[in-house]
Design brief:
Two copies of one chain form a homodimer.
Chain A (H helix, E strand, L loop, with lengths): L2 E6 L4 H12 L4 E8 L7 E4 L2 E4 L1 E2 L10 E4 L3 H13 L3 E4 L29 E3 L3 H17 L1 E9 L6 H17 L30 H13 L5 E5 L9 E9 L5 H9 L4 E3 L11 H4 L5 E9 L5 E8 L3 H17 L9
Parallel strand pairs in A: 1-2, 1-6, 2-5, 6-7, 7-8, 9-10, 12-13
Antiparallel strand pairs in A: 3-4, 9-11, 11-14, 13-14
């Protein structure tokens, strides 16, 4: 059995990673289409050993395509994801547009694969990058010790803002070196040699939408009773998000127990040596599939407190890999409505 | 009345800033000596319009000097600060060596100037940079609403590791640009385009000494009952530390009340607009004296919860400025044991 897969947003940072991940994991494809906005049509992108010519999303007919891996931006998915779904193509959408709709499953395969049993509109949502890596680490701890409250501060790379974000960090860093003026365009302030406590737009309560996403998505994926308070910060790193996670549990928890539970958990790699270099940084996580957990410590300032440092490649587990894993799970569970003709 | 002031560690990042701050603030100096290790002796450093020739610390006689501003590294202060104090020179020491000794005042002039009344050994300690800016912001809130617990994650610039840290970020960034290999020397991993969750050495409980400092110094300066849990992270920024501060108070507190209290507080500047660019980043704070507070939000996940973002120039308020402010306070309070001959 093999499938016709359309990658929508194929020229973006996540789209390219989706194509790479499909090829690396030998996803059973019969055919792959690279799809993007009209202005990218005709460009070429790599898929394994072959080269694909980008097709225009506006003109693309999803009839006969089994799976659409979407990462074109929220407003574009809002229009084209339902169009693809109506044509019988199961959409796995990486944008924020559908995530909180009650009849759209929001899935991290290691955490809540059971949510895939309720695909109603032909759309599955891929969570926000910073949420995915946190819930992969929290899930095994929650099952055993009960997560009550999470205070998290993030260190998020510019690739979370797409290829434009990466280009801007590069261009600004170069400008600093040659003493050229720096003109921020994509970010609100200079990101080179700086950090910016602002990701996505501001909400009424003073939080940013990125911070709100970490709260509401964690509750939808893991447990609606969990309280999450996030401060989300952009840092001048190209790829890889890090998070300082401070958790209060319902049950007593020791560092040793946490380590043992995390070591046995799917998708998690514990590297925690308490010595020079004995932890994972974003640079170490680039190109890796795992969510890395380091710096596990008891927090003695609160009952049943535990803190850890969590790092993952935001383009892989935070986006493309999680989307492809959803596709693999859908296939494995026999949930594709209409196998390839 | 004017004073003879020796700046010890005058060739380092903080030492140079101390000289600059003394000149800018027109501290009443009769004479200034630039003092550093023997290998820097003979070098020249600026003080206002004049140039000072660096003298060797090993051979320097502190007799007749009124104030010593020390920032030479903890092991050097351990030897030479008591030697200076015995010669009758009041030492204001920026290293960590004496901070937690019960008979050494640990002072932030906006927060606990009263501690200066108990100078016993002729040594006053300047707190850690990340602690100073946090207690400047917490103090007015504590007076009014009672701080119970603080969970803080830091974004600390490389200048906190001195001139070597700044040189390493610059050299590594350049190496990435020209595709040279990167060889970390001062930091444990590449800091260019990366973040490292490790500052100072590891302690037995898995915290770093930097994290421990934030806990114990905040308690010594502000209130021994306050609980502090910190995660300290080095980021690729040259100057300016940022902190995501999450606080639980004893009393109800609103965003409006917090803003009003902070606006009236000495040393604090509130810039909090909840729109693009309406917050302070480390780059904005470079060369500034204030501790900036932005992103003030209610934390609804805990009783009387409030979060904010706090930024300051770690070489100024975090080090040199605070030391000079201590000297100013000592002079204003008439606490100098022996006025200049």
């Amino acid at each position: 059995m093999s499938y016709r897969v359309a990658v929508v947003g194929a020229t973006g940072a996540v789209g390219r990673e989706m194509l790479k991940t499909l090829a690396e994991r030998n996803f059973p494809v019969k055919e792959v289409a690279a799809v993007a906005s009209g202005r990218s049509a005709g460009a070429q992108v790599s898929f394994g050993e072959s080269v694909l010519t980008v097709q225009s999303l506006e003109k693309f007919d999803f009839t006969g395509w089994d799976i659409g891996l979407f990462s074109p931006g929220a407003s574009v998915s809002a229009v084209h994801a339902p169009r693809a779904a109506q044509a019988g193509c199961l959409v796995i959408d990486n944008t924020s547009h559908f995530r909180m709709e009650p009849d759209v499953p929001l899935v991290v395969p290691e955490v809540n694969p059971q949510a895939l049993a309720r695909i109603r509109r032909g759309i599955i949502a891929n969570p926000n990058c910073s949420t995915i890596q946190m819930v992969v680490a929290l899930k095994p701890l929650h099952d055993r010790f009960g997560v009550r409250r999470v205070v998290v501060a993030t260190y998020q790379s510019v690739s979370g803002a797409g290829k434009e974000g990466m280009d801007e960090l590069w261009a600004e860093s170069r400008a600093v070196f040659v003493n050229d003026p720096v003109k921020p365009e994509h970010f609100t302030k200079q990101i080179a040699f700086n950090v910016i406590p602002h990701i996505d737009r501001f909400m009424d309560d003073g939080s940013t939408k990125e911070e709100w996403k970490m709260t509401v998505e964690t509750r939808k994926i893991l447990d609606p009773e969990i309280k999450v308070f996030a401060t989300c910060v952009r840092v001048p790193v190209f790829i890889g998000h890090a998070e300082a996670v401070h958790v209060e549990f319902a049950q007593p928890i020791s560092v040793g127990e946490a380590r043992a539970v995390l070591r046995a958990a799917p998708g998690v790699t514990v590297l925690d040596e308490r010595e020079d270099g004995g932890y994972v940084t974003p640079l170490d996580a680039q190109g890796e599939d795992a969510t890395f957990v380091s710096r596990i410590r008891r927090d003695p300032t609160v009952e049943h407190g535990l803190a850890f440092w969590c790092v993952s490649d935001n383009l892989r587990k935070g986006a493309a890999l999680n989307a492809v894993q959803i596709a693999e799970t859908v296939v494995a569970q026999g949930l594709l409505a209409r196998p390839a003709a």
